[in-house]
Amino acid sequence: MIEYENLLKANETFLKDYSEIFQKTLNSGWFILGKNVENFEKEFAAYIGNKHCIGVASGLDALIFSLKVFEFKEGREVIVPSNTYIATILSILHCGLKPVLVEADIRTYNIDPFKIEEAITPKTKAVMVVHLYGKCCEMDPIISICKKYNLKLIEDCAQSHGAKYKNRISGTFGDVNAFSFYPTKNLGALGDAGSVNTDDEKIAAVVKSLRNYGSEKKYYNERIGYNSRLDEIQAGFLSIKLKRLDEINFHKRKLAAIYLNELKDDFIKPIVHPDFFDVWHIFNIRHQRRDKLKEYLLKNGIKTEIHYPVPPHKQRAMQGIIEGEFPLSEEIHKTTLSLPISFWHTEDDIYKVIEVMNKYESN
Ligand SMILES: Cc1ncc(COP(=O)(O)O)c(C=O)c1O
């Protein structure tokens, strides 16, 4: 059986270092907002190239704080891709704002930059892009639109640690940029974790306060804050993994190249282009009879996943909230299938998946 993911295997190579930092943190007797968090924030800011990184409790909280800092009035609009994980849209709703969904480009699965302008109204305040599956959005036209209409740009980098567009790393395009370190991510913790990255000192100070009850000075509260702190133990684990993030990404790139070269053309493969340095958080193909293909692969010992089976606008929670029709997103959700591509998979594993897939006769 080739599993889709196995987090024990994905972390096996780090276990000794994890045990050491766990013991060290335990012995320090300091578990919230200490040296480990400070160190990781410095290291991750340096890795991405931001002036500030603020560790928070999850990617969703990172997105919520990325919007909160602008204090947009209730009901103002934020443009967001229709083809994303629901967390992106939830963050907008949690801030009392209106998500305005824009269709995906069916070739990249990311927001279609040429459909953004028609979604702008006098109430539009920001564009929230998502670099889905580990591929950056086409940022040049998006940046131009944000400048032209004076919109804030927020990046959801939950799936794009280390991904680049025209040699520029994701997390450096937006006014504020949100990361998730959910365990399955390319940079994953051993629990929930996230960060907000920015070059803006004022924004950084507000996020620091928001994550800690709205307090800058202990027991003095400046704003209505949250308890959303990255904890010392997770920060320690993340520092260990960050040192090998490039290795993780390069391994996944090598596996993706094998899929791209060897899979037969019956499957719609992701496009690659020299402008994009993809880190393959997810490697998906599309197929008209996706569910049958998934079943066939499982019968032949290969586990796959679907990212995602139901588009956000079709979720029950969104009924009466999301306006518009998004046939391309629906098409993607109906046909997409994610193949094994974890850090621990070997080239042999990938060749085995390919062998089984290339024998598949669809009719
Ligand atoms: C695109 C995207 N945005 C946001 C999130 C939310 O991150 P978290 O699960 O850490 O809250 C995820 C995560 O799973 C995601 O894939």
Shape: globular
Number of strands: 14
**Which residue ranges are poorly predicted, with pLDDT under 50 across at least 5 consecutive positions?**
none
Q: Largest sheet, if any? A: 7 strands, mixed
Oligomer: single chain
Distance between the termini: 25 Å
List the bound ligands: pyridoxal-5'-phosphate
Strand portion:
15-25%
- Helix and strand run: HHHEHEHEEHEEEEEHEEHHEEHHEH
Strand-helix topology:
Blueprint: H1 7-11, H2 15-28, H3 35-48, E1 52-56, H4 59-68, E2 77-81, H5 86-94, E3 98-102, E4 124-130, H6 139-149, E5 152-156, E6 164-165, E7 168-169, E8 176-180, E9 194-198, H7 201-210, E10 215-217, E11 220-221, H8 232-242, H9 245-262, E12 276-277, E13 283-286, H10 290-299, H11 327-335, E14 336-339, H12 347-358
Parallel strand pairs: 2-3, 2-4, 4-5, 5-8
Antiparallel strand pairs: 1-9, 6-7, 6-12, 8-9, 10-11, 13-14
The protein binds pyridoxal-5'-phosphate.
Pyridoxal-5'-phosphate (PLP) is lined by residues 58-60, 84-85, 87-88, 130, 156, 158-159, 180, 182, 192, 194.
Q: Please, could you describe this protein's structure?
A:
37% of the residues lie in helices and 15% in strands. By secondary structure, it is α/β, with parallel strands linked by helices. A 7-stranded mixed β-sheet has the order 1-9-8-5-4-2-3, sandwiched between helices. The chain has a 3-stranded antiparallel β-sheet with strand order 7-6-12, with no helix packed on it. A two-stranded antiparallel ribbon has the order 10-11. A hairpin with a 2-residue loop joins strand 6 and strand 7 (168-169). Helix 2 runs antiparallel to helix 8 (232-242) and helix 3 (35-48) packs parallel to helix 8 (232-242). The two termini are 25 Å apart. Pyridoxal-5'-phosphate is lined by residues 58-60, 84-85, 87-88, 130, 156, 158-159, 180, 182, 192, 194.
